[in-house]
Amino acid sequence: MIARTIPAPPSGRAAAYWEERARRFASDGEGLAAVCSYGMPRYYNRLIHFCQRRALEPWLRVSEGTRVLDVGCGVGRWSRLLAARGAHVTGVDLSPTMIAEAERRARACGLASRCRFLVQDSAALDVEGPFDLILCVTMLQHMLDVGALRAALQRIALHLAPGGRLVVLEAAPARIASRCDTPVFRARPRSFYLRLFGECGLRVRTLRGVDPAPFKTWLLPHLARLPRALSLAALALTTALSAPIDAPFGRLAPGRSWHAVFVLQHAAGD
């Protein structure tokens, strides 16, 4: 299916929006429509997931016993991967249904002993730490209130161990690009995040790209206005054109990438 519209949560009701989204999509297949692109076809979300994993892979290589915090864990796709590699993972999410699904999937994979999942608001994050690795994938871009966003990043930084790494993947184009913004999403310019990281006592160690192909961002603002048959054909074509660019070259082209991976450490550790 293609989500024709994205319902905006009432003011202060982001939790209700994510809970409804989780109820619709968290148990569907890999659950990617709940955590990647809202209600999009599986092939489209699988490409997004594949490109995200390629971009994140250098920082997903963990040693036995690594303490990991997965903020905005959704259905636990990264939590399970890291637990299977020997990490002890805590996943937090705003949606109880997401958390229940993450727990179910971890049990089904035999990873429940290495994972714990908690319902928490990242702006008031409070879990037992600290953590050697904190992962935050496409969560900040859905926090529309800048004050709550800053509070979340400050709370996340407080849970990072000295010498630990915070890996953030967000929509962060090199230039201002609001054409894909929705009532639940903001593609803030990369300079905004760089400034915010500094204000929260974090320093960028590495910056990588994810998806430099421009076709998706050209199409998405117009998709809901197209007839269904045409929108499906356009989306399939866009995905086919993006895959051979994004998959092999995404992390090598941060300057042209729509999303970016920021690898951060405490600035005081320099």
Give the structure's gist in a few sentences:
By secondary structure, the protein is an alpha/beta fold.
Please give a structural write-up:
- The chain is an alpha/beta fold and 270 residues long.
- The chain has one domain (14-269): Vaccinia Virus protein VP39 (Rossmann fold, 3-Layer(aba) Sandwich), CATH 3.40.50.150.
- It has helices spanning 14-25, 32-35, 42-56, 77-84, 96-108, 146-158, 190-199, 215-223, 228-249, and strands spanning 67-71, 88-93, 115-119, 131-137, 160-171, 202-209, 259-266.
- A seven-stranded mixed β-sheet has the order 3-2-1-4-5-7-6, with helices on both faces.
- Strand 2 (88-93), helix 5 and strand 3 form a beta-alpha-beta unit.
- Helix 8 (215-223) packs antiparallel against helix 9 (228-249).
- The longest helix has 22 residues, at 228-249.
- The radius of gyration is 18 Å and the shape is globular.
- The protein starts with 13 loop residues before the first helix and ends with a strand.
- The model is unreliable at 1-12 (pLDDT under 50).
